[in-house]
Amino acid sequence: MKREKSFTGRIIRNNFYAMKEAMAISKKRVICSVIKRLIEYLLWVFYSAFFVRYILDAIEQEKPLKEILTAIFIIGGISLLLELFLYYCSNVLFPAWDVKIFHELYRKVYKKAENVEIGCYENKEFYDKFSTAIDDMGNKLCQCVDNMSTVICGTIGGVLACYTMVEIDPWTVIFLAAPLLGNFLFAPKMNKIFYDRYQDGVPYDRRLAYVNRIMYLKEYAKEFRLSDVFHVVEDQYAGATEGKAGIWKPYFKRAFPLGMLQYFFSYMVIFEGILLYGAYQAIVPVTPTITFSQMAVLTSVMVTASWVWVQVINAVNRSTENSLLVENLRNFLAYEEKIPENVEGVLPESEMKSIEFSHVSFSYPNGTPVLKDVSFRIEPGKSLVLVGHNGAGKSTVIKLLLRLYDPTEGVIRLNGRDIREYQLAAYRNLFACAFQDGTILPGTVRYNVLMGREGSDTEVVEALRKAGVYEKIQSLPFGLDTPLTKEFDENGTLLSGGEYQKVLVARAFAKQAVVSVFDEPSSALDPIAEHELLSGILQETDGRTRVLISHRLSCVKSADYVLLFENGQIAEEGTHRKLMDEKGKYAELYRVQEQNYCAIKEGQEVDGNEC
């Protein structure tokens, strides 16, 4: 029982949270929703109880027809005005206010998403909450408001209807106790069952949503057509569908008897019971305790009361379902960031004097170690190249440097100060970055290069030229104003993967930052084009502090320092010449790549002995 109370308490808190959030955005929407529902239920109770009683009493008392018709027209006129108001609310006011609620709510969610640390996106539990928090949450919030309005105003209307019934015959209170028993004893148990069923269905819903999503994404289109993977996905969809269907049967067995009891006490007892009782009291006794007009009113009010309580119960059930999603929104917005993007701190100097990793280690929350006791120093104007096999820890170094993560152990210093002491936005502004998995946004070339910053066309052109992609951009229909991707514009241009990467490199060139960071910026290029781009990067950033990750070791000859990573540790370090003289793993990797590169360049077979 304690567990059910806790569950009911969560539902209530979540719905009041939704009301509070909606009130903070649009008080008019919440207040008007309550007024609208109150008018609707009061009208129903008025017509079924007071108006019907007035008409029947007027007929029994043989009042003039003119007086009755006058009352009917007056009440009808007022009702028409109220109905027009209700229609105006539903079709004009609410849609406009709902748009405002959607906008403000999603702005709040997106701002929070922007502020949480990147590690949250790699946390399955957190990512599930995030994805459900933005899943049609604007509608869910407005539905919670309407459901709460229905519960509050429907209860008022139901109590008034029940009061009218008790006023006619006090013994009807016995029948009125039945819906309370049905709603407050059986409904919470039903809601708990529905909640458990929802929770068990979430993994299947996620798989179904995944399949539905990839079916229309262009990056999957080629794979579907060139392989048999569609049938694998189809099997996953079928399995998820069967799995979700399979959870209904056991929950049906639990819910069915409770549902029947709830239906019996909430509807049949009050509906059938009062109807039979009223008919008996009006017909059977020698001296009837109620008149036929009272019997008619009792029947009319009974129908209204039953219908109103049905609305209330349905609203409670909907509130339960929606509140589960609202709880995800609530937890998401309440999350306390470990590295908040808006954190304040010391403003960094505009000049970089040194960057130092001191005994830095990093592990993911599940305990998987990625870096172990890494120490190195970057001097101003020097270039550092990180090399090693995939998964060796190179990209993690960059993420720690940019403070996308914080070290598990050790400290990273800029100009002798722990980077955690700096204002995060100002600190990150010191870096210009190009990543192998960088994103091209659906916007113009200019927009994708400047990324929201102010800049002249000359700067954009120069950056594109340095990246070796300006000739391609110049050949496009609208030059710098050509939209990239066809996401929002049918006239958008689709570039090759290598050309997109060059635009990302141009993005880094266009930003006049203290430190340039390039993380595998040429992975989509062929070896020759890759060598040319990397050589261009080194040439254009010569004399500036730069950090480069690359598998192409031929580009590191001019680097001031090289770190070879293996299993999260620095296996070898030094200049290119020093590492080659040591004839270790770096030298071995370099010789193999040199042979492959020469073979490709000369159109020869690679046999390991040439070049």
Report on the architecture of this protein.
The strands form two sheets. This protein has a six-stranded mixed beta sheet, sandwiched between helices. A four-stranded antiparallel beta sheet has the order 2-1-4-5, with helices on one face. The model is unreliable at 1-5 and 604-611 (pLDDT under 50). By secondary structure, the protein is of the alpha/beta class. The chain is elongated, with a radius of gyration of 35 Å. β4 and β5 form a beta hairpin. α2 packs antiparallel against α3 (65-115) and α4 packs across α10. The chain is 63% helix and 10% strand. It has helices at 2-25, 27-60, 65-115, 124-133, 137-168, 173-214, 218-226, 229-246, 248-283, 292-334, 394-401, 424-428, 445-450, 457-466, 470-474, 497-510, 527-540, 576-582, 585-602, and strands spanning 355-363, 369-378, 383-388, 409-414, 417-418, 431-435, 515-519, 545-549, 561-566, 569-574.
Give a concise summary.
With 611 residues, the protein is an alpha/beta fold. It contains 19 helices and ten strands.
Sequence stretches where pLDDT stays below 50 over 5 or more residues? 1-5, 604-611
Q: Find the structural class using helix and strand composition.
A: alpha/beta
Quick one: overall form? elongated
The value of Rg in angstroms is 35 Å
Major sheet size, sense and barrel closure: 6 strands, mixed
The total of helices stands at 19
Relative strand content: 5-15%
The percent of residues in helical segments reads 55-70%
SSE succession:
HHHHHHHHHHEEEHEEHEHHHHEHEEEHH
Strand order of the largest sheet: 6-7-8-3-9-10
Distance between the termini: 79 Å
Counting DSSP E segments of at least 2 residues, the number of strands comes to 10
> How confident is the prediction overall: mean pLDDT?
82
